[in-house]
Fold this sequence. Notes:
By secondary structure, the chain is an alpha/beta fold. 40% of the residues lie in helices and 20% in strands.
Amino acid sequence: MPAAREVTLIPGDGIGPAIVDAAVRLLEAAGARFTWDRQLAGMAAVKALGDPLPEATLDSVRRTKLALKGPLETPVGKGFRSINVALRKEFDLYANLRPAKTVLTGQRFENVDVVIVRENTEGLYVGIENYVKVGDDPHAVAQSVAVVSRSGAERIIRYAFEYAVKNGRKKVTVVHKANILKYSQGLFLETGRKIAAEYAGRVESDDKIVDACAMELVMRPERFDVIVTTNLFGDILSDLTSGLVGGLGLTPGANIGYDCGIFEAVHGTAPDIAGKGIANPTAVMLASCQLLDHIGEQARANTMRAAIETTLRERKTVTRDIGGTASTDEYTDAVIARLTG
Ligand code: NAD
C-alpha cells in the first residue's frame, strides 16, 4: 500500500475549524489516506503567534504542495492584507477553479453547470495602491493599479481551454471589460481570441463584456459552460453563480499553480453563525473532492460527490442555510452514511 500523503490543514477562522473537521471526517470515512499537518493562518495565527501568515505554515505548504484550508478573516479597509491573496502569490496559484452546479431541486434554475476559471494573481489584486494628498487631505484621492500581463493572460486562458478539453466541456467564454479598459482588459481579450483560435474545432468559444455576462448569467445560466476572466470579475461572478445553485455554502474553490494546490470554500468565515454548530460544510467537502481530483483520485472524489449530492437532494438532513434544521455534525454523519462504492 502506498504511503499516506501529507497534506497541510489550515482550519482558519470563524466557521473554518468546524467545516474543515467535517471535510476531514468525510475524507477519512471515504478511505483517503492522508496525514494532516495542522497549521495556523489568519486571525487564529495572529492570536496564537502574532503573525497572520507564519513561516511554519508557508514551510508546510512548500513541503506538502497540497493544502485544505478554511476561510480566513481579513480586516476590511485596514490592517494586514488578505492572507488568501498572499498565499496565491507565494505559491503562484494562478488558476482559481470555481464550479457551480445545480444539485438542490426547487431552485430558480434546474440546470446550472458553470465553471468559473478566475485569474488569481494579477488584475486589481496585485496590491499596487496609494493615496494622493491634496491640500491638507492625505486621502483626497486613492488609486489602485490593475495589472494584466500577456504571459499571465495566456496561462489562465490556456488553462481554461485545457480544462474544457480534459473534462468534456463544450464552450469557453472569455469575459472582459475591454470596451472601457482598453489596455489591461484589451490585452486579456486579444489573448483570449488568439488562444480560442488554437482550439477551434475542439472547443467552442465566445467573448462577453462582464456586465452583459452578469445579466445573462442571472437570466439564462444554461447558456454558459466554462467562463475565464480576470481576478476581480471572477471573484464577483463566482459569488453570483454560487447564488444560482443555492448559496455560498455549496461552492468550492481550487487554487492551482504549476506544482501546488490549495483547496477551500468560496465563502468566508461567516462570523454571524460561527460557534453555533450550524455551518454548512458542503463547500469545503467539495473542495476536498477537488483536492482528490488534483492528485488523480477521481474515483474517490466521485464517490464523495455522489454521497453529498444524494444527501442534499433528499433534503432530510441538511443545514439551515438551505432550508433544513440539521447541525454541521448531523449533516456530515448523513453524508458519511451515504458513502457507497
Ligand atoms: P461570508 O461568506 O463569510 O458570509 C456571507 C453570508 O453567507 C453570511 O450570512 C454567512 O452566514 C453565510 N455563509 C457563508 N458560508 C456559509 C456556510 N458554510 N454555511 C452557512 N452559511 C454560510 O462573507 P463575509 O461576511 O463578507 O466575510 C466574512 C469574513 O470572511 C471577512 O473577514 C472576509 O474577508 C472573509 N473571507 C474569507 C474568504 C477566504 O478565506 N477564502 C473568502 C471570503 C471572505
